[in-house]
């Protein structure tokens, strides 16, 4: 977490530059430039696949329904794996008849078939199609891998569901470890029509849900709630006698909380939709955050009257929990961003917003503090400034809870 924030903070220094360049062009590999990719391999078609910088060269012979292919992709690390497969029953990973390649620790490239029946572990196994001529090679200096093979398909299978993936490590030179769960990884699937040569991606309801979850929670916990906290500081610093701060603060926080409740619901739904995918830190912070925020809303009804002797303790408690909720909310937005991996511009926009807000909050805190230090020397007409909602003897209680 600390690492993520530090890491993000470094990116902040690049902000002006990055806004100019505005990272938006995904890097395209040049692998479909030629249909002839070696002295022995010439294909009739090549499709640049929409994710993970990968491509598929292929030739389909319809008279014996044989697909000859070469799949090209850079693995996630130099000791990682690449995989391509056909899913005859569904559109996702489960059920895919795949081939997978990775460098063995002795330096040679291994190619294995995998009949993927569970998310983890996936172990080498025969597949339901006749497949032969498997081989793999390194291409270029970038550590990109290419796998070759021939597969005999059922004659009626002219549009197939293809699934591809890259991972970062392999256990015991045989079992591929889990791949990342970024947007690109989850979108790495689609159809390939062997007659028209067209490929398409799938809209994934989980991806839509993840985006909705991300937007809702960023707006509520990441924007509205911290903003509502700063509003309270703002009024305290500049309009201490103005009682409207209370209504502005409470309504911002209640709106933030309501959106947050809905966002939290989408998180629960996502958790139940994504069996086998665990984001423990993000989930635990989410649960703690939601519990504290609920407590904070409920505590509003237990607020002692302004002149009650426990009111200063309540204020202390309210501020403590409030800051904790804001901090956890922001941390969890960054956690979420590191899972969702949206375009960098989103990260930069949020970092800018939160930095400006933090600077504002800090200066308001200082000026409230300076104001509070000056007050005791001031005359009675300005004494009201200790607390905006204070009336009469409430001031006395408030003084004890002022940060000094
Ligand atoms: C397709 O396969 C058949 C049967 O093996 C063969 O006779 C024919 O030449 C092949 N067509 C092409 C274009 O390779
Ligand atoms: C189909 O034909 C191609 C091209 O002639 C050949 O390479 C392939 O082995 C054939 N498939 C089968 C299943 O015999
Ligand atoms: C590396 O190990 C694999 C799997 O045990 C084996 O098939 C291959 O021949 C080995 N290569 C070298 C160069 O030893
Ligand atoms: C990996 O290899 C080690 C040593 O050969 C063995 O003890 C261990 O059980 C293997 N792990 C798996 C998951 O196969």
TrEMBL record:
Heme b binds at residues 213, 249, 282, 318. Binds 2 heme b groups non-covalently. GO terms for molecular function: metal ion binding. Residues 175-373 form the Cytochrome b561 domain. It holds the Pfam family Cytochrom_B561. Keywords: Electron transport, Iron, Membrane, Metal-binding, Signal, Transmembrane, Transmembrane helix, Transport. CDD domains: Cyt_b561_FRRS1_like, DOMON_CIL1_like. It is a multi-pass membrane protein. Residues 380-404 are annotated as: Disordered. Its cofactor is heme b. One of its GO terms (cellular component) is membrane. Residues 1-29 form the signal peptide. May act as a catecholamine-responsive trans-membrane electron transporter. This is Cytochrome b561 and DOMON domain-containing protein. It comes from Dioscorea zingiberensis.
